[in-house]
Specification:
Layout lengths: L6 E2 H8 L3 H9 L7 E2 L6 E3 L2 H14 L4 H9 L7 H37 L3 E6 L2 E10 L4 H16 L10 E5 L9 E9 L10 E5 L2 E10 L5 H15 L8 E6 L11 E7 L2
Antiparallel strand pairs: 1-3, 2-3, 4-9, 5-7, 5-8, 6-7, 6-10, 9-11, 10-11
Length: about 270
Amino acid sequence: MSKKTKLKIGEFSKMMQVTVKALRHYEQKGLLIPDEVDEWTGYRYYNIVQMQQLNTIRKLQQQGFTLEEIRELLEDSAQIPSIDQLTQKIEATERQLQLLTNRRNQLLKWMKSLKKIKTMKKFSIQSLPKIIVASHREIIPNYRALGALCINKIGPEMQRLSCQCPPPGYCFTIEHGKEHCPTGIDIEYCEQVEEMGIDSHIIQFKRIPFVPKALCIKHIGPYERFYESYAEAFIYMEEKGYKIAGDPRTCYIDGAWNQNDPEKWLSIIQIPIE
């Protein structure tokens, strides 16, 4: 009777191109138990059959099976997954593929947005004229709620009050909170109108004074990333020796009303300076 071939863990590791650390990990997980462990030396030995078992483990790992799933397969002596198990793995892989595709598309949009910003004039210094505005102040849960607020509440009320807006139109918001609040934004929406009107429970009319100098910075992208442009603006102000001299405004040029892709929304942040 021929003697069964036994390979020390180092020999097995070398031939199968797998680290000893990985073999010990498989042993701990109950995936590939050494054929023999010398009780005196602790040396581990593997047999020829276990070479194929290791290949099976590797193949299953490459196809996305977890070590726990592989251990269950080996315990059932299945060696290969069932049709149902393969179907589940295919469905999980498709979900992961969709997530990765979405991430790739978002990264591409971000890259295009950054390229567009670099090719346009980022900053300008302008004066802001004295105007009359229709104003509405409210606490909203997040910037995404601003569009619905304008469309469903402010717009209809301005129409009811017969507000006339001079072309090309100028609207902006001012945040009144003293600090960032994750549960709500204290925001005032202002839209330029031709004349003072009679206040309602939704709209108040006010005069906005002339601002002799304001730093204007173009922001391309969703409103949740305004902080990026504010950081750039204040770095620019410090380099040029400007100081803030009033409440910043955010003027909306392109948004949800005419552009479905938030990465293409254009806003102008206007910061009074001196």
